[in-house]
Structures are given as structure tokens and as C-alpha cells.
Design goal:
The structure holds three protein chains of three kinds. By secondary structure, chain A is mainly alpha-helical. Chain A is built from five helices and no strands. Chain B is mainly α. Chain B has one domain. In chain B, α1 runs antiparallel to α4, α6 packs antiparallel against α8 and α12 runs antiparallel to α13. Classes of the chains: A mainly alpha, B mainly alpha, C mainly alpha. At the A-C interface, α1 and α3 of A face α1 and α3 of C.
Chain lengths: 118, 482, 101
């Protein structure tokens, strides 16, 4: 063990107490009056022109979710690319397996119509 | 920092995992080719894959292979758990087919996701590196969030999924913090390295906090009091076949990882965490059994019963040693048979619209179908721990281990709790045999469901009368990690 | 004043506990979900700083895995919350009590 971590334990406790205290105080002290004006969506002070419900297609969420997934999974390719030569054939085969599993996921999203905009 | 080319691992050692993964992908792809079709074939394919993986695990248990896959142990202990997971998965697939068709959610993804959840459980059981255990846990948990909300037009199923998702990811956040602290204190994520560092260090508050936070993460998955609050709602709201799956596989997987982490990495802190688990175990048994007494919904009752069973299992964990841990392994195997069996009978009575979930719906079942009433009788007696069923043998070995290792009073509390639990199990039996049937119940009999119920009953009675074979298997498995 | 390991751990832990407190206080399902993400990111900061401190890469690798797990969890979680919203038209956790007996 590098050193005694007791100071950090103390800090953790203080941090935990402080975080809950601040959140609790803002709940108690802050006024909670819901007026009509507050319930309006904020558009830079200009009265809202259109109601905010139903303006985004549900497609948007599905495509965004699929994007996030594939976007983040690709992060594993970076370490492999850096060490490409040293990992050799073994690393290559592993990455092909990884991408193969991802492709099955993509095929699923495609076939089920998750990628269609209209 | 030196980097060397990793050796090509012996693929035979991870054959069960490879088979489960490939089956899952295959099921998904075949489902894509024939979008509208019957899904019975996919269920059969999934079940076949699980059976094959189970056979490979059994072979590996008998002839362990020496491998050098970093962070992944192929010992007999892991294989014992993998057999439980495959068995539980097989039974769940069997009870699902007709149920999903009746509810109008017969989709191929279901089987694929079940297989992925089992893959996660297998990785958890084998992991000797905290990263591997974490990834396995999340693969299992995320698959289960989807399964809990599988009936996407049912508000109850939605609600169960949201509750399970929020509380599940909250608990894995806490688990993650515990892992981070263990890493910060020791500089390693490998269980054996952590064990060495922990053994050489004095006990600090931070180390204890790391142990407690990781313990809390596991306690959530095994549904131990006070981390059980999600269980009744999620069990009631999820599709019944998913509840059956949830009540066995994840619990066994969490116990598998818990035993490995606590007895290897934190083995030198045994005195400290034993105290912790004694408290958890007593609270879990007492709360589970007392609240189960008041339930009118059978799924909710079985949820509290599964909480109570987590308590019995923790008695074995506290007792520890070869005796304690092997009795836990045996009990988990038996628990898979009796709990999935009991949910199978609930599915048998299920009718669209939530009928069949109430304990009153069991009234007069013996008049309607003698066989299904008898099957439920066996499961209830086994859950209550009454001889000659396997439930008795399982409880007997757990409490014996506690007595032999000096926890007589804990065993006494366990036995008293068992006696209380008999009341609510016997109440179901009373309803079936003593009360006249209300409106004519309709049974959803299917070949697969009957076969699974038959296997469960035969398994329970066989282990109940000859527990020796399974117990020996559990003992050899346990010696591989102690 | 130099920035030491303790400062990073403090920052990470602060994020974690703010997320934890937020999860327990908030009643909107989306906000609760965002608080969980906050907890995970707090842990990530700690992992990276320990990894740097020990000159040991496993902490950084862990962060990559936590990020992908968080993305998968986000996708599944958002899908679950969307189906719930379509059926119930509310995101207030206190109103989800279909199963209270």
C-alpha cells in the first residue's frame, strides 16, 4: 500500500456530507412556486410560437441511440490500431471477431427498420 | 512496462462460452431471415446450444484444463456454476415458448437475449479479474433490463423494467466505486494480486469501505435485505418466464462472483466481512419470510420467498470452508429446479390479463388437473424444506455446515425461519386440495412445459433421496478454489 | 499549489456522491438516469488518476469498458423509458405504483 489513505477517507465523508447538505438546503430554502410563466418553454424571451410536444420524430431517438452505441464501441479499435504490429495476427483475428459481433447487431437494426428515417 | 504477444488461448477451455455466444448470434440471424414465422424452432436451437454448452462444462469439470487465459479461470468451481446456468436457461426456454405465443410476444430476440444473459453469468463465474467480473455482470444486467420490459405494451412490464433498470444501474455504480477503491489501494485489478497486497497491509477504513461497497453491489443482485426493495415489484411486473429466469440465474452468478472475490481477494479480512454477512443473512431470512406471509399474489410471494432463500444461502457462505460453500452450490442447483418449476406452474395457470397470478387462482387445482396439483405440491414442499424432497437435503447440509463451523445459533435462526416459511407454502397446497374450484381454470398445457415440469420433479425427488452424487460434484468443485 | 492525486480523487468522489444524492432526491426518471451517468463518470476520473499514479494501464482500460457499458446502458435505458412514457405519459417515479398492494 503506497501510503495511509485515512485523509482521503475523511475527505470522502466530508464530501458526501457537503454534497447532500447543499442539495438538501437548495430544496428547503429555494422557493417552489410554479407559475404559468415558468411552465412555458424558454425561447430567449420570445413567446413560444409552436407547442413543444410531438415536434421530434420518434425515429430521431432510435437513430441517435444506434449512433451512440456504434460510436462508442469503436473506441476499442484505437488501442488495437496503436499496437497493430505487435499484436500481429492474433490481434487481427480478435478484432475481426469483435467487429463480426457488432455487424450482427447492425444487421439486426437494419432488418428491423431501425435505420429508416421515414 | 513490457508488452508481449499474448499466447493463443486453448479454445477448448472456453468452449461453453463460445457455443452460447454463437448460438445467440445464430438465433438472431435466423430470426432476421424469417421475420414472420413460428419461433418454436429458434427456441429449440437455443435450448440445444445450452445443452451442448452444459455438456462441455460437465466434461471440463471432470477433466479440468490448465490454461493461461489472464483473468479467466477454467476451474471446476466455475464449471459447476455454468452447468446451473445452462440448466436454468434450458428450463426457462422450455416454459417460455407457449407463454410468449399466448401473450402475443413470440419474438426471436427473446431467446437470443436469454443466451446473452447466460453468457454474462458464465463470465462472472469464471472471472478472476475485476474487469472481467464487471463486464460479465453488466452483460447479464443489461440483458435482464430488456427482458423485464419485454411485454412492451403492458404498463406493469414497463414499470418493472424502469425500476429494475434504475436501481440496477445505481447498484452497479456503487459496485464500480468499490472496484475503483480496491484498485486505488492495491494498484491492481487481479484478485490474486489484490489478495497479496491486502494481506500485507493493515486494515484501514478505506479498505473496509471498498469491501462494503463491493458487497453492496453483489447484495443487490442476490436480493439481500436491505438491498431487496426492487425485488417484489420487478418480479411481479416482469413476464412470468423472465421472473423465473431472474430468480435463479443472476442470483447464482452473483453468489459465484461473491464467493470468489471475498474468499480470494479479501480472504484475510474474513472476520470483518463475516460479521457483515451474518447481519445481512438474518435480516434477509426474517424479512423475506415475514413479508411473504401477507402476500396474495403468487409472483410476489415467490419474490419474497426468493429473498428468504438468499438468506439461507448466506448462512452457508458465513459458515464457509469446504462444507459451507459446497452446501451452497448444492442448494443453488436444487433451487434452480424448484423455483423455475414453481413459476412453470404459474405459467400453466396463466391467462391473458393477469389471471392466474393470484394465490386464490390455485383453488381446487387438484380437481381440475391432478397431475399439475401434484407437481406444484412437490415444488412447494421442496421450497419449504420438507423431506423427502431435495429442498430438505439442501437446507440440511447448509445448516449442518453452520453447526460444524461454530454458528449453531445462526443455524437455529435458519431452522425457525424455515418453519415460518412452511406456513405460506402450505397455504398454496391447502388452496389446491381443500378448496372447491371457482370459475373453471383453463390450463395452457404444452409439450415443452410438461417436459420441463417433469424434469424438475424428477430432479427434486432424485436429489432428495440420493443427494450424494450432486454433493460430491459440489465438493470437488469447491476444492478447486479453496 | 500543486495538483496531487488527492485532488483528482476528491473531484471524482465529489461527482460520484453528487450523483448518488441526486439519484436519491430526484423524482424524474430522466434526471435519475443522468445522475447514474454522473456517478460512473466520477469513478472514471478516479480510475484514470490512479492509473497515472501507479504507471499501470489497467485503470485506463477499465475506463474504456465503463464508457461502453454506460453507452449500452443508456441505449437500453432510454428505450425502456420511452416505452414507459408512451404507455403512461408521465416520468414521475412516484406515480409508478401499479404494483403497490
Amino acid at each position: 500500500m503506497p501510503e495511509s489513505y485515512f485523509p482521503i477517507l475523511l475527505l470522502l465523508l466530508i464530501v458526501g456530507a457537503l454534497a447532500s447538505l447543499i442539495l438538501y438546503l437548495s430544496r428547503i430554502i429555494g422557493p417552489h412556486e410554479m407559475t404559468d410563466a415558468k411552465a412555458q418553454p424558454f425561447e430567449s424571451g420570445i413567446p413560444a410560437a409552436t407547442p413543444h410536444h410531438g415536434s421530434l420524430s420518434i425515429r430521431f431517438y432510435i437513430i441517435a441511440m444506434i449512433f451512440i452505441l456504434f460510436d462508442i464501441e469503436v473506441v476499442f479499435l484505437y488501442p488495437w490500431a496503436v499496437l497493430f504490429r505487435r499484436l500481429g495476427l492474433f490481434g487481427f483475428v480478435e478484432v475481426v471477431i469483435f467487429l463480426g459481433i457488432l455487424t450482427v447487431g447492425l444487421a439486426y437494426a437494419w432488418r428491423k427498420g431501425g435505420l429508416e428515417w421515414e | 512496462m513490457t508488452l508481449s504477444m499474448p499466447p493463443i488461448p486453448n479454445l477448448h477451455a472456453i468452449a461453453p462460452e463460445i457455443i452460447v455466444l454463437l448460438t445467440s448470434l445464430l438465433v438472431l440471424l435466423i430470426d432476421l431471415i424469417q421475420l414472420r414465422g413460428k419461433k418454436g424452432g429458434l427456441a429449440f436451437l437455443g435450448a440445444a446450444g445450452l445443452a451442448l454448452a452444459g455438456i462441455f462444462s460437465y466434461k471440463l469439470l471432470q477433466h479440468p484444463l490448465a490454461t493461461d487465459i489472464p483473468g479467466f479461470a477454467v476451474d471446476a468451481y466455475a464449471q459447476f456454476f455454468k452447468i446451473i446456468f445452462c440448466l436454468a436457461g434450458l428450463m426457462v426456454i422450455g416454459i417460455s415458448v407457449r407463454y410468449l405465443t399466448l401473450e402475443g410476444f413470440s419474438l426471436g430476440e427473446y431467446y437470443s437475449i436469454i443466451l446473452l444473459a447466460i453468457l454474462g453469468q458464465m463470465i462472472m463465474a469464471s472471472g478472476t479479474h475485476l474487469l472481467v467480473i464487471y463486464v460479465g455482470l453488466e452483460l447479464m444486467a443489461i440483458s435482464l433490463y430488456i427482458l423485464a420490459g419485454f411485454f412492451k405494451h403492458h404498463p406493469k412490464s414497463n414499470e418493472a423494467a424502469v425500476k429494475y433498470f434504475l436501481l440496477g444501474s445505481f447498484s452497479s455504480g456503487i459496485f464500480l466505486y468499490g472496484i475503483m477503491m480496491a484498485y486505488g489501494l492495491t494498484g491492481s485489478l487481479d484478485l490474486s494480486v489484490i489478495a497479496g497486497k491486502v494481506a500485507g497491509a493493515e486494515l484501514t477504513g478505506l479498505l473496509l469501505l471498498a469491501v462494503i461497497m463491493m458487497g453492496a453491489g453483489f447484495a443487490f443482485k442476490i436480493a439481500a435485505v436491505p438491498f431487496h426493495f426492487w425485488t417484489p415489484d420487478v418480479y411481479e411486473g416482469s413476464p412470468t418466464s423472465v421472473t423465473a429466469f431472474m430468480s435463479v440465474g443472476p442470483k447464482a452468478a452473483a453468489f459465484a462472483a461473491l464467493i470468489r472475490v471475498f474468499s480470494s481477494a479479501f480472504g484475510t479480512l474474513r472476520v470483518e466481512w463475516t460479521t457483515l454477512f451474518i447481519c445481512l443473512s438474518i435480516a434477509t431470512m426474517v424479512t423475506g419470510n415475514l413479508v411473504a406471509l401477507r402476500q396474495t399474489n403468487i409472483k410476489r410471494m415467490l419474490a419474497y420467498s426468493s429473498i428468504a432463500h438468499a438468506g439461507y444461502l448466506m448462512v452457508g457462505f458465513v459458515a464457509g470452508g469446504e462444507l459451507g460453500i459446497s452446501s451452497m452450490l448444492l442448494y443453488l442447483r436444487i433451487y434452480a429446479f424448484m423455483n423455475i418449476g414453481a413459476f412453470g406452474v404459474v405459467i400453466l395457470l396463466n391467462r391473458v390479463g393477469g389471471i392466474g397470478d393470484r394465490i386464490d387462482d390455485f383453488a381446487g387445482l387438484s380437481k381440475v388437473s391432478r397431475a399439475s396439483a401434484f407437481v406444484m405440491l412437490v415444488f412447494m414442499l421442496s421450497l419449504a424444506g420438507i423431506p423427502p424432497t431435495a429442498g430438505f437435503a439442501g437446507k440440511f447440509y447448509i445448516f449442518m455446515a453452520a453447526v460444524k463451523n461454530g454458528y449453531v445459533w445462526l443455524a437455529v435462526i435458519g431452522v425457525l425461519n424455515s418453519a415460518v416459511s412452511a406456513y405460506y407454502y402450505l397455504r398454496v397446497i391447502m388452496r389446491m386440495y381443500m378448496v372447491e374450484p371457482g370459475d373453471e381454470p383453463v390450463l395452457n398445457v404444452s409439450t415443452a412445459l410438461s417436459a420441463i415440469l417433469l424434469i424438475a420433479v424428477v430432479g427434486i425427488i432424485a436429489i432428495g433421496i440420493f443427494p450424494g452424487f450432486c454433493l460430491d460434484l459440489a465438493r470437488t468443485s469447491v476444492t478447486s478454489i479453496l | 499549489m500543486t495538483i496531487t492525486l488527492e485532488h483528482y480523487i476528491l473531484l471524482g468522489s465529489l461527482l460520484f456522491f453528487v450523483g448518488m444524492a441526486g439519484f436519491l432526491i430526484r423524482r424524474n426518471v430522466f434526471l435519475m438516469f443522468m445522475c447514474i451517468e454522473l456517478m460512473m463518470n466520477g469513478v472514471n476520473i478516479c480510475f484514470v488518476s490512479f492509473s497515472h499514479y501507479y504507471h499501470n494501464l489497467s485503470g485506463q482500460v477499465f475506463v474504456l469498458f465503463v464508457m461502453t457499458v454506460a453507452a449500452a446502458e443508456a441505449a437500453v435505458g432510454l428505450a425502456i423509458i420511452l416505452t414507459l412514457y408512451r404507455n403512461r405519459e408521465t416520468l414521475n417515479a412516484d406515480e409508478f405504483r401499479l404494483m403497490k398492494h
